């Protein structure tokens, strides 16, 4: 595994490629990340680099004790890495970590949709619209009554939709803008505007 960056989704737009085709891109604002902790196998049982970004309005005492002389970051995430020798606490990491044309994995939390039925949540088929039917968007049968006599685990039912941790894999970086701390990634990335996303080199 390799280190990545923490950023925020600005939104989507489109740019022109060199051959004149339109490329849809997601704009991710990546302020310089600060290394807040380096985990080792001897102390923690695994190797990872902890990064922080943003500015916190308020911190609790454990956070103040951990950050100490470091910037008061608002969001902290960990990246599993094989070798931590190249990183030390207080080091800054920015968009220069990536180059245009590179493949990355983008992780974020999808938009929350609230309670949804089977049609919206699982793309179930609609019921008949005519001939006296009133089951237009009903979920239908959930299983046999006598045998097994209960609803099987994993049956697709209505329920909460969205707000899931999603990773979009092997997304290509179209352009980097170190001056404005921006990454332009081809296609959509999870989450609404201003959502926190993690970008790391593709596995």
What is the topological layout?
Elements: E1 4-16, E2 22-29, E3 33-39, H1 41-44, E4 48-53, H2 61-67, E5 75-80, E6 92-93, E7 103-109, E8 112-116, H3 118-122, E9 159-162, E10 165-177, E11 182-186, E12 196-201
Antiparallel strand pairs: 1-2, 1-12, 2-11, 3-4, 3-6, 4-5, 7-10, 7-12, 8-9, 10-11
Explain the overall architecture.
It is a single chain. This protein has a six-stranded antiparallel β-barrel with strand order 1-2-11-10-7-12. Strands 5-4-3-6 form a four-stranded antiparallel sheet. The protein has a two-stranded antiparallel sheet with strand order 8-9. The chain is mainly β and 203 residues long. The longest helix is centred in the N-terminal third of the chain and has 7 residues, at 61-67. The protein is built from three helices and twelve strands; from the N terminus they run βββαβαββββαββββ. It has helices spanning 41-44, 61-67, 118-122, and strands at 4-16, 22-29, 33-39, 48-53, 75-80, 92-93, 103-109, 112-116, 159-162, 165-177, 182-186, 196-201. It is extended, with a radius of gyration of 23 Å. The mean pLDDT is 92. β10 (165-177) and β11 form a beta hairpin.
């Amino acid at each position: 595994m390799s280190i990545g960056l923490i950023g925020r989704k600005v939104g989507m737009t489109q740019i022109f490629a060199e051959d004149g085709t339109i490329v849809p891109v997601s704009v991710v604002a990546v302020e310089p990340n600060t290394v807040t902790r380096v985990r080792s196998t001897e102390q923690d049982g695994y190797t990872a680099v902890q990064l922080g970004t943003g500015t916190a309005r308020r911190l609790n005492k454990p956070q103040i004790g951990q950050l100490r002389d470091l910037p008061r970051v608002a969001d902290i995430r960990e990246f599993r890495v094989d070798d931590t020798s190249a990183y030390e606490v207080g080091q800054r990491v920015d968009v220069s970590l990536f180059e245009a044309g590179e493949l990355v994995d983008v992780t974020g939390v999808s938009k929350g949709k609230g309670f949804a039925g089977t049609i919206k949540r699982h793309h179930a088929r609609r019921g008949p619209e005519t001939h006296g039917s009133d089951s237009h968007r009903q979920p239908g049968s959930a299983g046999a009554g006598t045998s097994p006599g209960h609803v099987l685990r994993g049956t697709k039912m209505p329920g909460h939709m969205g707000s899931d941790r999603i990773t979009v894999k092997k997304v290509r970086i179209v352009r980097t803008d170190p001056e404005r701390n921006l990454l332009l990634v081809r296609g959509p990335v999870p989450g609404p505007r201003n959502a926190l996303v993690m970008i790391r080199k593709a596995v």
